[in-house]
Specification:
The structure holds 3 protein chains of 3 kinds. Chain A has 2 domains: 234 residues, 3-Layer(aba) Sandwich (Rossmann fold); 238 residues, P-loop containing nucleotide triphosphate hydrolases (Rossmann fold). By secondary structure, chain A is of the alpha/beta class. In chain A, a hairpin with a 2-residue loop joins strand 21 and strand 22. The chains are: A alpha/beta, B mainly alpha, C alpha/beta.
Chain lengths: 499, 327, 700
Amino acid sequence: MPLLRAADIEKHYPGVRALAGVTFEVEAGEVHALIGENGAGKSTLIKIITGAVTPDAGTLSLDGELLVDHNPQTAKARGIAAIYQQPALFGTLTVAENLALGLEGAGLWRRVDWRERRRRAQELLDRVGARIDPDALAGSLSMPEQQLVEIARALGAKARVLILDEPTACLPEGEVERLFALLAELKAAGVGLIYISHRLDELAQLADRVTVLRDGQYVTTRAMSQVDKPELIRLMVGRELSGESNAPARPAGAPLLQLSGLGCAVNGVHDVDLTIRRGEILGLAGLVGSGRTELARILFGLTPADAGTMAWDGQPVRLETPAQAMAQGIAYVPEDRRRHGVVGPLSVTANTALTVLDRLAKGGLVDARREEDLAVDLGQRLDLRAASIHTTVGTLSGGNQQKVALARWLAAEPELFIVDEPTQGIDVGAKSEIHRILGDLAAAGKAVLVVSSDMPEVLAVSDRVAVMREGTVVGTLARGEATQERILALALGGAEVVG
Amino acid sequence: MKSADRRVLTVAGVLGVLLLGLAVAAPGFFQLGNLRDLIVDNSLVLLPALGMTAVILCHEIDLSVGSIFGVCCVVAGGLAQAGFPMPALLLLIPLLGAAFGALNAGLVVGLGVPSMIATLATMVGIRGALQWFTQGAWVNDLPAGFQWFGLGQAAGQALLVLVAAALWLALSWMFGQVAAGRALYAVGADADAARLVGIRPKAVVSGAFVSLGALAGLAALLSSARFTSIQPSAGTGMELQVIACVVVGGTSILGGRGGLTGTLLGVALLGVIATTLIFLHVNPAWEKAIQGAIILVAMLGARSHSVDRLPAERPVAGRVPGKVVRP
Amino acid sequence: MTEPTRLSTHQSTLRRWFPNHEWVLLILLAVEVALFSATGRNFLTVTNAFELVRSGCEVGLLALGMTLVIITGGIDLSVGSMMGMAAITLGWLNNVAGVPIVPAIAVALAMGALGGWMNGALIARLGVPPLIVTLGTYSLFRGLAEGLTKGIINYSSFSDAFKALGNGYWLGCVPRQLPLFLLVAVGVWLLLHRSVFGRQLYALGCSKEGALHAGVPVGRRVVTTYVLSGLLAALAAVVYAARLGQAKADAGTGFELMAITAVVLGGTSIDGGKGTILGTMLGLAAIVMLENGLRLAGQQAEASQVMIGVLLLVAILGHRFGTGGRAGAVASTSRDSCEEFEMKNYQVAILSVAMLLSALIVAGSNKKVAEQMSLLSAAPPVAATQRAGAPPPPPPAKKLTIALMPKNKGEPYFLSCKKGADEAVAALGGQVEFLWDGPANPDPSKQNEVIDAWITRGVDVIAASVENKEAISTVLKKARAKGIKVICWDADAVADARDFMVQQATPEGIGTALMDEAARVMGNKGTFAIVTASLTAANQNEWIEYIKKRLAAKYPDIKLATIEPSEGKRDVAMTRTSALLKANPDVKLVMGIAAPAVPGAAEAVVQSGRKDVKVIGLSLPSLCREFIHKGVVDCIVLWNTVDLGYLTVHAARALAQGDIKAGSTTMEAGRLGKIEIAGDQVLLGKPFVFNKDNVDQFDF
């Protein structure tokens, strides 16, 4: 008998069928991976299991017992816990209270025992091996630390079913290892783990079984040992993909931006020497926290440099604000798409025009017709799928949102394109399209800087790979010499780099 | 918590300096009678401020508190005239306030109207209705037992202060030590996350609005009981005064942070300004300017060591404050 | 790979014209227009439409700036206070420093921009939430204005050319404000809806981070927005000063809430990123029209406050209902479950309809309102039926419409006047339709609006108790030009703005009487203190002037310790009196010169246990009776206010029916008998001193 079973789940939203007769189960002591492209119905299924959403039809059962009156509270009481991509902690409350809120009863008129709270928090934090002060405000912790707190919370809840939604998306490599060790412990303790990830390589390492969803429908469940990556991709997209074929090598152009001794005390970047050339894609690899995003933010003027120099086409420049960077010809597609990359409540048109308003305007007034033409034109170029150019961007899928984020900068026709985690949380189909766009840009003589934690991606698209560690660039590898092992060795440090 | 403590210390420091200065410049300020007057008067501001703290902790706001106060004053007078005994009023008037609080809660929680707008509407509407029906007429000829609940001045004042002090103590304890109080903080920090840990944000927010209504009603009754007649325009402008006290006391307008110690100090700080000016023989025309300056200084003082501004690179858990990152 | 598809550019016409569901407001407006055309007199006329512009102009200017601010996700509570600040800047420069009006206006505008910059800088550069910053500057700006002028100074010597900006006409009927307002509105519309700045404003209103990452200089844009808001507030102050012919620290009090209400009613989201100028203008129109329409329908303006509250909710809910029509798009991203959303729509629909209906019922059925009012208010029923009532079918005999305006409807003083007026109206039987309306707090600009509405409505006689001479005189002259008879009572306007003045006592008489009584109680020596209404209250300041004159002239051994404001509130008067008695132990007498100030001060004296302190002042017998009997209040100085109201109605009737005209020396006034007329002054008699011997003879 499975630990948890969701049978024949149906869920409709107006105009959308999110789930159609999906059955999914997880055994005790098993890691069951759940994969599918964005929009396949994974999130809805998870929400149904955690009680956040009520299904239109179908049943949930735990230990063979039918779950009625299922809502987030009863789900929690029944030992179903979930950890989401973005940690959902209370920023203004202490770690101890965050842990307690998940664990204590729901009664409003209980007395709170702070000493007990602190003691238990310490105990749980010790168990996940986190050195975190229980009295620290959760909002002051780093993302990996916050995730550890969440896992501690699930541990404390004595979760029987633990759902992890892209838990490694924001974790540095070292932390990933520790997470996997923790998960193995949980698994050994008989917890049923549901694991959602776009990183198929991780699954091979971790999962026992894998279930594939596509367009809200159940596709198949296989033992992980019986499928390989291409097979999984085929199952997810329902078609063969050209794969991660390397783009043709391009001749490198003249240096566009030269950094020497660049640093910024605020975000820990120091002594960066790097040259970005026209007509090439430069990959920027490194562990999370090694300063990759921070470097990108310096280049876009979000956190101005306070040491070193930058030269643009050989001329020294200073980039103090994003507006200056933009005027210089720099584009930045940030990591956090929803919060930074696009303006969700605005239309496709308003988003694509945002970076080029000055050019669309005559005498300070924006020409609405040209604005619309631009949106139509870019939408076509990027194969954007939206009902109309007046559609609100927030309602689009992740991949299409990312296309809008790219489109707004394509419109600006910058010389240097910085893209931070361009394909994070994006389905495989959209991913290869975005790689194609980046390649086209480089072919057109632009410089492209790709920051990514996805090592195969870095290898697939880059002409050169720069590796960062502890706030500075520790090495640059040409296309021929770059391998996953060598990048990792540089990123981790200590290991000898073979030339 | 740590940062909230520091904010509280900032306000306490400003208040301390002010009192020290007064001790030198106008020692008469500290005569017993004046202190008693200050405590009685500010107890009446403290009551709604307690409720307002709860509402602001939930990241909501209530502009209608002055109008609720006004209605409760007039109804208290009307009921007293109609022969209701004072103990009954002590029950009924806070209930009436709570009913108005429930109206606000219904609009905010039930219909999803932003609290700023919902309570702007009830503020204007309730005050308009009150003026319409009373035509500004005072409620006179109250029964003899109305003033001071028939207890006499000293006992009446003591009762008033005791009620306020007891409620402050009880709510302070509750905000820190009871799950319901902590739920205010959790909902204010992140309502969605709160739901995931089994807190019902709608119930918590409703509770805050209803408590504020009830406290405004109680304050109205106690305030009216100081007099022998009732002025229907009572409570106009009260909402901004109360909000100012709460935010000067360090409770974050963005929710989830602050507390009642700060609110007590905020009430005390803004509550002594007018009297201070009288004792220093300064022209009262400057009162509002000084009040404004104190609000701004308290906010700026608290800013320099607040956690609102984490380094932008670091992701912030929960609700991200709507701040502007310096370009 | 599929063929790239061309994105649709289709957008429904409704959406294109009303991107923010402004049609909801159009419907509301249509309902209002239909309603008031039916119930209000002369509502649907060109003149009235133009008058609406005049009364809405200042709040409208604030609302334009406020729309921008709220779209950035902020709020600006300080605009009303900024009006006060800008007004005194203008007044001081022009009246005192002798700077010509144009540069003076420029400096006032610069002052507004500076204040706005201060708000913006604190918000954008230091990251303090806008509500807090502007709550602080709301107090600060007003406080500076009051502090610098001590609240008292009233700059009123402006040139006629300047005043024409507020009261003049183009082509005979277009108010001078209209072109200015249209110009600004179009400018702000272009700025928000057509310019680069506007596009960026929407983006940063939705997401500051998102805008920043698109290269929008967020901080600079936010600062600019608050600067514009401050600038428009200063412009509103200029128009205000021109309309009233005076500049004082209390200019624009409470205007910030009206502006916010208009903006929010117009559908601008308080969370930012959403809203239109069209919406704001419609919201403003809905509010202004509501007040004006109720007035023309002879209704109390308080009703408009209630209905503004209801309208706000209806509009917001209707707005959501309108959005709900596209639930599909919303639900796919909404974190709420769908069921909940649909449920809400349903509830919202029912609630909106219910609220709209109730609003219609309240506004439409004047009779109902009258009945309710007579049931729920203490007013005598006969008066209620008289004052309410839409114009009935033309009566056989010509019915006189007499409109009386107090300075402040809520004041007990004026309520007692109204008592007498009601009595007189009742005595005149069915000959008279009686209107009683005025500001809910002493507000000269509101007085002008009320009179404008009465002119439009076409009353026969206007009788006004004037808050500010200069401010009201132009509009009274306009009334006379249209053949309406004008009387002043209680407080006078300039002589050629009215036919007669019903004179109860001059400020000099009051001040002298008060000071003499005080001296008597104090035995011609010692220290006393004054508790006034607010420091900016015009009347009280005039009385204080004469009190001080009398003091200087006759009583060298008496000292005035302090003058404390009470904001027209009894409990504030009590608090201040308690403190001032302790801070000034030698004070032996407190003089309250506002109706609530005397009982407040008396209560403070009782509670302090000081037997040696006495209270006197200007108040009503009914409010002070028990204190007079207790001996705390020695006496109060007043005239018979009931008689004042009574006489005013009689004088109005007599004037309208030609019984008195210039040169008359007496008139018949019902139970008051023959009343003397000296020149253009109808004389009620001398101020009266109420003490424990006679106070029980009066029931007002």
